[in-house]
């Protein structure tokens, strides 16, 4: 699992329909050219308002043309109000391709109405998971020492075979403690922006200690009547650089009935699909993932894209292929412009954003410890 807000900060922190503004693209006039921070209206509404958070996933809101849903991980905020949420928060608002959104509305805890635009502060999106355990078998909830959290691992608009007005969110239930960040469950939940409601939440895989990495899935992609997800592991980590590892691919039918059942999942074994997760092989030749995130950029003619972080210094590789099962090649390498890296507070959380990207540039978000925030940079294809 990736690292989020550093441990020291975590311990210190220790149904009416939504109104989305269906304005033309000019409404995103405050958007900024990359590199820039992703900002909400709460952050820009008063001097001194600040949100510290990472993991900036996004997806175009169903049935809109210029609205995007942003999903974040642990968030701590201060200013005109202060608070924190150890888990997932979300925001919604207009976007312009090639630009970084700066006018998002923080989404209140479901099922309160969103009523965008609004200057409200962040709030929790997914409920706090229960039943997670520490390594000694005790409950994962010790003040100042451990806590349970649901961390989002990707999102995708559902196809017409499911519920096209909803977004499917993948997540991991994690017991966060000083000894590690073991994912004990992989789950899926459907989210409706129009009503700010969650539904169909399912814990697909679970373990009393830690899931096999092949079952800690994320980056949902709908394609050809199937739901595809990836998982990753760095097998050899030398001084913060991944020397070799694996990025594996799973699939399941693209309907709620299919994806909610663990017995329906299959993994690519190099020549076909197997129900045994241990048979999975890496789809990336020479994979070196400290983290990996996949998206479908077919609408831009770029095929499938995986952003792979290879070390703690912020280096990454962009992989592209017309097929999820093979043919992957590195088309671009680079380093995010992070600063002030120290301890566990490192450059991380690299995700591509199809709705923000253009035919010339991939727009990629990352966490920069210099400003404790989700930023977006532009990478030429």
* Total number of domains: 1
Distance between the termini: 27 Å
Q: State the secondary-structure class.
A: mainly beta
Strand order of the largest sheet: 13-14-15-16-17
Largest sheet: 5 strands, antiparallel
State the shape: globular
Give the oligomer, counting copies of the same chain as homo and different chains as hetero.
single chain
Listing every helix as H and every strand as E from the N terminus to the C terminus, the arrangement reads HEHEEEEEEEEEEEEEEHEEEEEEEEE
The CATH class turns out to be Mainly Beta
Radius of gyration: 19 Å
| Low-confidence runs | 1-29
Instruction: Please tell me the overall pLDDT.
Output: 91
Q: And the CATH topology?
A: Tachylectin-2, Chain A
Q: Tally the helices: what do you get?
A: 3
Helix coverage percent:
under 10%
The tally of strands reads: 24
Report the portion of residues in β strands: 35-45%
